[in-house]
Amino acid sequence: MENTKTIAKARQGLRGTIEIPGDKSISHRSVMFSALGSTPVHITNFLHAQDCLSTAACMKALGASVEFESETSLVVCGHGLHGLREASTIIDAGNSGTTLRLMMGILAPQPFLTTFTGDASLHKRPMGRVIKPLSAMGAKIYGREKNTKLPITIVPAEGKLHGMLYESPVASAQVKSAILLSGMYADSPTTVVEPFTSRDHTERMLEAFGVETKKDGTAVTIEPVESFHAPSSIEVPGDISSAAYWLVAGSVVPGSHLLLKNVGVNPTRTGILDVLEAMGAKITLENERVSGGEAAADIRVEAAKLHGTSFGAEIMPRLIDEIPVLAVAALFAEGDTVITGAGELRVKETDRLQAVTDEFNKLAPGAVEASKDGLVIHGGTKVRAATCFSYDDHRMAMSLAILGAAGEGAEIERPECVTISYPAFYDTLARLQA
Ligand code: S3P
Predict the structure, then answer these.
(1) How does residue 38 score in pLDDT terms, banded at 50, 70 and 90?
(2) 317 touches 171 (CB < 8 A)
(3) 242 marked as part of a ligand binding site
(4) Which of 54, 97, 101, 302 has the fewest CB atoms within 10 Å, counting from its CB?
(5) Structural domain boundaries enclosing 256
(6) 110-140 pLDDT, tens digit each
(7) Is 174 annotated as a binding residue?
(8) Are both 276 and 196 inside the same structural domain?
(9) Is 321 a catalytic site residue?
(10) What are the catalytic residues (predicted)?
(11) What is the pLDDT of residue 344?
């Protein structure tokens, strides 16, 4: 792809139907857990994007069979819970925090060595949040900067890991999942307590593999696992974090009417629907169903007059990846939007609070102010066409594209990072604008 992408101003409403690509979080877990089973699992609607392909490559390197039948359908088969084997070379998690953090949880209890690397962004991200609790369970994990950064090496622990009660300072599904996955191999039960409940795809998918977790408020407990029974198939619902771009575009571009097909609406992920509704969006759920233990629906969105809102720490885990695009909705709303409790955005693929502030202000001067853990967005600020930068962060690139389409157009530098989670994004936008 060229090194800049021109986004045209939408001259009329966006109309049409969009099949939402598979959920990134669930796609990762489907391959990881299937690789710990001993019978083949047929995975459909898998997200064929860089992050999930990193996970597939990791599991293959560790001895699982991973055979693609098409881009979105594959069969994964492992050799059981204790059947992974030492990889012959370094494992590359690419840009994917989920791959690295969950894999650390799976590999910490294994009787072999693993060394991880990743891309430049992943090298900057904090891994101590997983390494510290796993080490407290007895794991031996070493990394740069006092065991907090890539490259990371895991060596066999002395005997079994020990179950523990861990009170996590952050609400993070990656931290929770890593600890629960190690807990499967521990000598006693393991409990993770979070400040607020994060996405529960790990718990739900473990249930499909016959592993029960117990939930009590924001605490989740797992017992040592004796048997692990893979289901014969897993159907991945569409990713609400990808649908988010169309929910916002459909709301703010006048005259729009979009139908988003097959969107996962797990309640731990639907914070964006609550916030957009509070802003006055016209969103309706149709054809609500449950597939593979996960709620899904088709979502209809029509243009609406939005107004500013405020939200904070409590809802944050339910919309953590949607803040950049919600900032676009806020920019086209009437009045200010105040976001607090969003400090986690500073340690995503890039510092998203800083990136949103700097890049949105290029397209709408004076529109955004950042605080230590949040943003104030002045709705109704005059928007112009400008060149802006993705920071090689997929969610920044897509949010800037929606801002450009809803505003006066934009030129995005380093646009190709959308392949991390949504390879068809620009083609879909162009189709809706045609
Ligand atoms: C994810 C959890 C979230 C989210 C990420 C995917 C997951 O990260 O931002 O895109 O699949 O568990 P944190 O758990 O670090 O908040």
Answers:
(1) very high
(2) yes
(3) no
(4) 302
(5) 4-22+237-433
(6) 999 999 999 999 999 999 999 999 999 999 9
(7) yes
(8) no
(9) yes
(10) 321
(11) 98
